[in-house]
Hints:
The protein has 142 residues and is an alpha+beta fold. It has 6 helices and 5 strands; from the N terminus they run ααβααββαββα.
Amino acid sequence: MLALDIVIIGWLAVLTYVTLRKNYIFAKKVKNKRNLKSKRYIIFELLVDEKDRDKVDQNSINAAVKGAVKELLGKMWLEISDPKVIFFDKRSLKGIISTNRAGYKAVIASLPFAKEINGAKALIVTIRTTGSFKRAKKIMNM
């Protein structure tokens, strides 16, 4: 029984070391200023009921996206990714979220957590990610 406990403790120590080492390497990548300066644009579509369409606007979507990132990954990743809804078309319910290269995957992963916007049940679906605003507008057919 004692040998089994020692093996389990050793295995947990190895897993802890590997996990911490992996997180440290990723934290070193984020310190690269190039990743924080270059922008990524996430084109999204909002799925919401017809009766709740008028409740949704750009500021409420922005607050919901920031809340979702904070809920999933915490304040640190909210500061790193710095997501902003820079464009939203109420007719087609499509928009563009601006973020940086270090945090765009975190923003995409947290979008399903934005389940309610201004009291309206909604779902934010990612269409595509691009590196330029001009290309993002072209994808949205603007």
